[in-house]
Every structure is written in structure tokens, then in C-alpha cells.
Design goal:
431 residues, alpha/beta, 6-stranded mixed sheet, 4-stranded parallel sheet, 43% helix, disordered N terminus
């Protein structure tokens, strides 16, 4: 009988978190803050955190992640707190996992931050694409760690499982590796087909000339709440990390009446697994294709600067972003005036809002329109009366600053994207 353990399998899972402080956070979260975030990840899956161990070392121990003395301390803590899961804050190797499991006993599951995030993604993926992306990332993570463990990889869904317990021989191990590689290849082909469909959809949106805005930011920064507030939508919002995985696009109206699209994307996190970044690359292309990127951050968090740095690191990894960017500091209603002044000084040009309360949203819409208009030079067109469809296009997908009438038709001064200008090309007035 094959036994597979997920943190979500047992509502009584009790975890011990383990971190190593090497003093080299490089602008990201320090060890304590990172472990606090790891605890929130556990809470997202319904596991309780009973204790935390931090060791200061020059480098992570190559065999057991933490040093021998801390391993003994961990053994005692696991026993005294009756924990059944140990989670390391950094990605650990097969050897480190095996050695810790040997020291702790077969009834204790040892996993790392990456495996925990994969479990969360598996839980929250709802669309076919999202599920395939999570399965691919999980298999890529598990493949080098197959070690006499095996799983029924021939099933349609792996599901992000960790902590497998098996005792089969090398022949089974090789068979599992072959199954995993075959499934990875199959998933890659399936996702390429979906990516091609996405490109067609993006191309249609581009040809429509509609200005495109994308939301990016640290997980739980309030992107989905902001999307709802700006578009009067009802995208589900939860106070949990990675509640949103699948991109969602809605229409938003700017103060002038111009319509633009706004897309919410998956949240980022410190130490986001490389496998997930690669698997979700097609989804994140929504960010790359946008005319304007709104980087949403939680201004009430004391780690806001580290979170901004973490998001920028992921954006750099996926080669984003060629368009305009605007930092949006959310949850301003929870920020003191003194702290707001500090953030204003550190991030000039940022817009302060409260997506939940509604503060600052009109100013944000105005700023989006300002950026939109500035990126597109004004063009004068004279549209015949029998082409009312183009007049409607101008008002829907462009910014119209002047309108007048002649015997021949309607004269407009518009600022629009190149696809819209191309559709109006034959009616452009040469001054």
C-alpha cells in the first residue's frame, strides 16, 4: 500500500520550523522574519507550529542543514512537543533530508520551504493550467529526490505530495525516474499548447488597442482586493498566502471614460522556488505583456522594503518589464503619518491607497490615465459620419481630448496605442 503524506492530510499536523542564520540575507527577509512567514505558510495549510529553532552558522551544514548539536536539540524538541513534521526554511538536498529523517525517526516527516509552497499551490490551483503548472513544478522538484521512494506517477495528478515512505529496490527507483521524466515531457507539451492559446488571446487584446494594466506584488499584499475595488468585481479574496494562483482579467474605466484591462497575477514571496517561477512563466507573461505594471505592496508590513526587493528579484528572473511601472502602497489606512512620510521619502512617486476601505482609488485611476496618456502622443483624425464604429473605438480604447464636427464628419484629437492608431490611419489629419 502506497502511503503519501501531505501537511494537509492531517488536521493535527504539528510542525517544528528550522532556520539557519548565515548573516547573508542580501536585502531579503532576515531569518526570524522568514520563519514567521514560514509559519503563515503552515497556517495556510492548517498545520500548527509548535516550535522554532534558529542556528547561527557561517554556512548551512552540508549533511544535516543544522549542526550536530542543534540536531540533538531538534530531536528533544520534536519528542517533547509531539511534533510529526519538521520544516527547513531553505531548500534542502536529498542527503540532508535523509540524514535528518534518520536522526529523527521514520515517523517524522522532514520537508523544506519549497515542498510546503508546492503543497499550497497544489491546494489552491483551480484551473487546468494551474494544476498542470503545479504538477510540473512538483515533479521537477521531486525527480532528483527520488530515493527508493516511489509514487504512482502514471496517475493523472501528482498533487504536490511530499514525505513519501517506500522501500523498493533500485529497479523500482529507475522506473519511477523514467515515469517522472516522461510525465515532465508530457506536461511541457500540454503547457506549450496552453501558452500558444494565451498568446492568441493576448494578441487579440493587443490588436483591440485596449491599454493593459497588470498587478504584481508580494503574496497577500491586497492585489485581488484592489482588482475588485477598481472594477466592481467579485474575485474571491482570502487572508491567506497564495490565495490567488490563476490570472484574472477585468475591464476598468478611467476618469475620462476610457476602458482599460487590468490583470491580477500570482503573488510572489521570498525564496519563491525556481521550479514554480519556471512553471508559471506563461502566466507571468501577462505581466510582461502589459503596458503598465502596478507593483502592489503592503505598506503596513515592517518588511515592506524586503518584500519589494523579493518581487523585483522575481521580475528580473522572468525578464520583466519593458513598460511603465508604478508602485502602489496598499493598506494606507493602517500606516501612521510618520511611517507614510518615511515611505514617501524612500519611494517618491508611489501612490498610497487602501483597496479595502477605498481611499486613494480615484487618485490611482487618475495616475493610471496620466501614465497612459503620456505614453501616447496626440493624433488628430477626421472620421466620416458613416464610420461611427471608429468614433466608438476612439472613446472606448483611447483618450479623446478634443471633439468637433465638419460637413465631412467628426474630428477628434486622440491618444491611443499603436493598434488603434493603425485602425484610424487613413483618417489621420496631416497638420
Amino acid at each position: 500500500m502506497v502511503e503519501t503524506h501531505h501537511v494537509t492530510d492531517n488536521i493535527e499536523d504539528v510542525a517544528i520550523l528550522v532556520g539557519v542564520d548565515t548573516g547573508t540575507s542580501k536585502g531579503l527577509l532576515d531569518t526570524q522574519d522568514s520563519l514567521d512567514e514560514l509559519a503563515r505558510l503552515c497556517d495556510t495549510l492548517g498545520a500548527s507550529v509548535a516550535g522554532i529553532i534558529i542556528q547561527k552558522r557561517d554556512r548551512i551544514h552540508p549533511n544535516t542543514y543544522i549542526g550536530k548539536g542543534k540536531v540533538e536539540e531538534l530531536i528533544d524538541l520534536v519528542k517533547s512537543l509531539k511534533a510529526n513534521v519538521v520544516i527547513c526554511d531553505d531548500e534542502i538536498s536529498q542527503r540532508q533530508q535523509e540524514n535528518l529523517e534518520k536522526a529523527l525517526g521514520d515517523d517524522i516527516v522532514v520537508m523544506d520551504r519549497t515542498a510546503l509552497i508546492l503543497d499550497i499551490f497544489a491546494l489552491h490551483a483551480t484551473t487546468r493550467e494551474g494544476k498542470l503548472q503545479v504538477e510540473l513544478a512538483t515533479l521537477q522538484y521531486e525527480l532528483p529526490r527520488l530515493r527508493g521512494k516511489w509514487t504512482h506517477l502514471e496517475k493523472e495528478k501528482l498533487g504536490g505530495g511530499v514525505g513519501f515512505r517506500f522501500g523498493m529496490g533500485e529497479s523500482q527507483l529507475e522506473a519511477d525516474r523514467r515515469l517522472a521524466r516522461d510525465r515532465i515531457s508530457e506536461l511541457g507539451k500540454l503547457l506549450k499548447k496552453i501558452e500558444a492559446e494565451r498568446k492568441v488571446q493576448r494578441s487579440r487584446r493587443e490588436q483591440s488597442g485596449v491599454y493593459r494594466v497588470a498587478l504584481a506584488g508580494y503574496t497577500n499584499a491586497g492585489k485581488s482586493t484592489l482588482l475588485n475595488s477598481l472594477t466592481n468585481s467579485d474575485v474571491l479574496v482570502y487572508d491567506k498566502l497564495f490565495a490567488t494562483l490563476d490570472s484574472t482579467t477585468r475591464e476598468m474605466e478611467l476618469p475620462s471614460g476610457r476602458k482599460v484591462t487590468i490583470t491580477d497575477t500570482v503573488g510572489f514571496i521570498s525564496k519563491l522556488p525556481h521550479e514554480l517561477i519556471q512553471a508559471f512563466k506563461s502566466t507571468l507573461e501577462e505581466v510582461n505583456e502589459a503596458d503598465l505594471l502596478l507593483h502592489v505592496c503592503d505598506g503596513s508590513s515592517m518588511q515592506v522594503d524586503e518584500q519589494i526587493a523579493a518581487v523585483n528579484a522575481v521580475l528580473e528572473e522572468i525578464s520583466v518589464h519593458n513598460g511603465d511601472q508604478l508602485l502602489v502602497i496598499n493598506k494606507a489606512d493602517l500606516i501612521s503619518e510618520e511611517r507614510k512620510a518615511e515611505l514617501t521619502n524612500d519611494h517618491p512617486g508611489a501612490v498610497f491607497i487602501s483597496a479595502l476601505v477605498g481611499d486613494g482609488l480615484e487618485a490611482l485611476r487618475e495616475k493610471i490615465e496620466e501614465i497612459c496618456v503620456e505614453s501616447q502622443p496626440p493624433v488628430k483624425v477626421m472620421i466620416p459620419f458613416d464610420r461611427g464604429d471608429l468614433v466608438q473605438l476612439a472613446y472606448d480604447a483611447a483618450s479623446v481630448s478634443e471633439e468637433s464636427y465638419t460637413d465631412e464628419g467628426t474630428t477628434l484629437v486622440v491618444q491611443a496605442s499603436q493598434p488603434v492608431i493603425s485602425r484610424l490611419q487613413e483618417f489621420i489629419v496631416k497638420d
